[in-house]
Amino acid sequence: MKIKKVSFEQVILVLFSIAFILVDWRLGIMRFSDLFLIAIFLLLLLYYITNKNMFFQKSQLLFLVLLPLLLLTNILMNLFFNSNFLFYESAQGFFKIAFYLMTMILIFNFVRKKKLEENLLDTLSVTAVIVSFIGIYITISLYLNGIFPYEFFWQFNRQDLESYTYRGWDRSIIRTRSVFGEPAYLGFYLNTILAILYFTRSNYKIKKSHDFIITLTVLLTFSYSSILIMAGIKLLHYFGWSNFISFIKKKRSVISFMLAIILIGLFWDTVEKTVIIRTQEILSGTDGSGTARLQGSWSYVNWDNLFLGNGIGNTPTLFNVYAYILSDLGLVSFLLFLLFNGWLIYLNPKLALVFIALNFQRGGYLGAGYWIFVTLIILYSCHNKINQYKLRMPNASG
Over 70: is that where the pLDDT of 247 sits? Predict the structure, then answer.
């Protein structure tokens, strides 16, 4: 039996995909995602040095200078004019952003230069399905009082009851979270992958089986925000009469839809408690948790020091990324981030709308997962939209 040789490109794509999955796993003070990104950075650096070339666009070189310079200016100004400023947290945040920025540009250029966009889509799709199956396996095991071993998947993660049950109730409603810290975080990850597979600027088509498994797993999270965002993604994807007709004409699509209806019927009591009643509570105002979480994020904004902000890393992690950036980095960085949102809308409106929605679900612009998320959004907003990829390649002779 002939063993298929694994290429360097495949190793990078798999490591990158796994880094996006293990964002909640910790080993001491380090997250697994950071360890995987360090490995990718060193491998790509070695690759470029060995091949005696580096690939950078002029705009990327400019960005590599301007963003750290903006952050350094913010740190220095806060150091002199903000008496509550914590320098150590900001210094740590600065080096994290600098590392993530360099690593993501190296990955972006490697994928574009090697034309690996569709290979990465395949890898992301397969890994998302694996993560989904792991989540379903753990959920079944929990319902059966741990009859199947699952502890390894949570060894470096949360294990408390509230992280996988609805509103901390006993085990009557188990929420699927797979290898992530919370069901909503799994939903964020799967919705990101689903949106990229749907809205990439290419002719790539997601496998119907993968689509069904990912959709089912998002539903099993019983995360209100995740299900709502997924519904929006589905509407954007099938928007238009021709797309709808094409969908219902396919036998597999009809079968998948019927299976979904049957599953909803079987678990109607759970659906009613987690979705129907929750919607009624939100509309009536008796459940203000979601609103409080979003509106509460803005309470950290220092309106007396709006221009500078509190400083990098000086605000607790917020779910609302827009409030997080305004609170930490001030008005200038916030406006630049809004311009970035506008650029994404110009490149790929549907994917940009999902990006905006997901920015209200999980915060943490200082985490590896967020930078991977942004890189994927940029990569597949640009895919086949920008035809010419001009690279700056220094002469090997110097």
Answer: no
